[in-house]
């Protein structure tokens, strides 16, 4: 990974994101299935992307949560589903979207206390 040309320097106003705009993009921008850049990508323990680039939007989160609910139902999984969130700007809107879908599918949910790094929740779930 290349080092940013301004690494170690103070943040400029132009470096900051507009959280309200990003949140609006999460809800309003719709990914196009025929655009590779709009497709879901997963990182260490979650979905990676940007609402501005159509790669982390409500449509993605709703589809992923619905798929999880359907896989659980089809495989007879009745235990709770653990859901966490972190401090990223879109974590709260995505968290709400996930809870709406899981509740509609009558999935019991255990919610991570406070905002924290999602690997803390993912690692014990995997091992």
From TrEMBL:
BP GO terms, sorted: carbohydrate metabolic process
UniProt EC number: 5.4.2.2
Keyword vocabulary terms for this entry: Isomerase
UniProt KW Transmembrane keyword: no
Lineage: superkingdom: Bacteria
Record domain Alpha-D-phosphohexomutase alpha/beta/alpha: where: 40-112
GO molecular function: phosphoglucomutase activity
Top EC class, one word: isomerase
Family of this protein: Belongs to the phosphohexose mutase family.
Protein name: Phosphoglucomutase
Origin species: Proteus mirabilis
Lineage: Bacteria, Pseudomonadati, Pseudomonadota, Gammaproteobacteria, Enterobacterales
């Amino acid at each position: 990974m290349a080092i940013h040309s301004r690494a170690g320097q103070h943040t400029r106003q132009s470096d900051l994101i507009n959280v309200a705009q990003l949140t609006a993009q999460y809800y309003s921008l719709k990914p196009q299935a025929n655009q590779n850049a709009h497709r879901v990508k997963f990182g260490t323990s979650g979905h990676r992307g940007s609402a501005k680039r159509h790669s982390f939007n409500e449509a993605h989160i709703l589809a992923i949560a619905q798929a999880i609910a359907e896989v659980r139902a089809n495989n007879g999984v009745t235990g709770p589903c653990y859901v966490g969130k972190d401090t990223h700007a879109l974590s709260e809107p995505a968290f709400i979207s996930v809870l709406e879908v899981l509740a509609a599918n009558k999935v019991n949910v255990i919610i991570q206390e406070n905002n924290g790094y999602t690997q803390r929740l993912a690692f014990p779930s995997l091992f």
